[in-house]
Each structure stands twice: as C-alpha cells, then as structure tokens.
Specification:
This protein has eleven helices and five strands; from the N terminus they run H-H-H-H-H-E-E-E-H-E-E-H-H-H-H-H. By secondary structure, the protein is mostly helical. The protein is globular, with a radius of gyration of 23 Å.
C-alpha cells in the first residue's frame, strides 16, 4: 500500500498525534532500508502528516489556594501523613515527575550550602538536583525524622504502609500508589477537580510563572528539553479567562 494512502486511512481511525508518531516511525524504517540499499528512496519522505499544534496541556491544575488547602488538611500525626505531605510538597515545589519521586532514596535528600537539596532520577537515567523551598524543607525534615528513616541512605524515601497500620514498610511506593493517595487526599479536602499526580507539576510551574518567574528558568527547574514543553503547563490565562467571563453581569 502506498504510504500516503496508508496515512489517510490511519487518520480516519486514530488521533492526529498518533498518526504523526506512526509516520515518524515509517520514515525511520524506510531510512534504514535506504541506508542498507534495500530500496532506492524513502517513500515516506514527502508524505506530510496531519497538522497538530498543542498550545495548552490537558493536565488538570489546582489553584494556589486549593493546593494549600489540600496540604493543610493532611493530618501529620502519623508516618503516613508525614509521608503524604512531603511527597505532594516535593511534586509542587520542585516540579518533579512522580516517576522520579518514587525512585528517590534516603541519600537523595542532602544538605549543601546550609540548604536542603533533593536529587531526582529523571527519564533516561538523568539526575536533576534542586534546592528545596523552605516549606518543602520543613516537610521533608519532619517526615524523615517522624518516620525514622534518616539513617537509611540506600533505602527508598517514600514507602508503602504495612497493611492497615500507620507504619511504613521497606517497600517503595509505585506510581499507582501515589495516584490513589492523591485522589484520597483530594477527596478528603473537598477538592472537586479531577487531579492526577502530574497536576502538582503543572500547578507549581503555573504559580511560579504567575509570581514573576521566567519561562526559561522554569524550563531548567522542570528539566524540560524545550521551553515550549514547559509552556504547555502554564495556565495563567485560565484565570484571565475566568475573570473576563465574570464581567457578563446578567
């Protein structure tokens, strides 16, 4: 089947981003065949994919007030509560991906220049280091001390609970565990927005930019390859739109 005809059929069945991804894969395959002298030319080279431009991400975002309320409603009289507050705070204040958070060990929280830092293990084996916001510093210190994991440098930082007890195991939390925890905490706080783990990354970036932060610095903090990717998390215009809608005084 001709490549162009194949791509047209695909556009009828799947979304534009998936079509573009398949086209890119076909181009790579045919390039390899050309280099290997199996075929003379790349038939996918001239085929144009569907136009698809994303200017705004789909991740649900919380306001600063909602985030503050969510954190403040977490009871911290047990290791579980201390853990949850520290984990959510880490995602908010460092823009960390949940996948990087659950990989952290005790040694990934350290002091440098009289300030607490965290080391995040990002995609592709990359390490990303960030200084802690003073709130996050407080949350982490309280968690490490309260859960008595300060001496376990190689142990996982964020651990699962032992059954229905308030004690932590030696096993690491997985992304699905964090999602369930976030959903439960949001429900307890009365937050109706259907948030996910990535919401805290988007919320942190939006609030940083709303308070005068620079996009290129947010890019470095979020460990994005491109500032365009960081811009997808910027939801400052959502508030502007809401303010304008309220001008309809009927």
């Amino acid at each position: 089947m001709h490549v162009a005809a194949y791509m047209e059929r695909m556009q009828e069945k799947i979304a534009a981003p998936s079509v573009k991804l398949q086209l890119a894969a076909l181009r790579m395959l045919f390039n390899w065949l050309v280099v290997s002298q199996v075929i003379p030319t790349n038939p996918a080279h001239a085929v144009r994919g569907p136009k698809h431009v994303v200017k705004k991400g789909k991740t649900p975002v919380l306001s600063a007030e909602e985030t503050r309320e969510l954190i403040d409603t977490i009871e911290i009289d047990s290791p579980i509560g201390l853990r949850d507050r520290a984990l959510i705070g880490l995602m908010v204040y460092t823009f960390a991906r949940v996948g990087a958070v659950v990989k952290m060990r005790g040694e990934d929280v350290y002091v440098q220049g009289r300030r607490t830092w965290v080391r995040l293990h990002e995609k592709g084996g990359k390490r990303h280091e960030m200084p802690c916001h003073h709130n996050l510093e407080e949350y982490l210190e309280a968690y490490i001390e309260g859960a008595e994991i300060g001496t376990s440098a190689k142990g996982y930082l964020f651990r699962t609970a032992r059954g229905r007890s308030n004690q932590l195991s030696e096993n690491p939390m997985h992304q699905v565990d964090v999602y369930r925890m976030v959903s439960r905490r949001a429900e307890d706080a009365g937050i109706r927005t259907q948030i996910c783990c990535h919401s805290f990354r988007a919320t942190g970036i939006t609030e940083y930019l709303r308070n005068g932060g620079k996009l290129e610095v947010a890019q470095q903090m979020a460990n994005h390859e491109s500032a365009r990717t960081t811009g997808l998390y910027d939801r400052r215009n959502d508030q502007i739109s809401l303010d304008e809608v309220e001008r309809i005084l009927i």
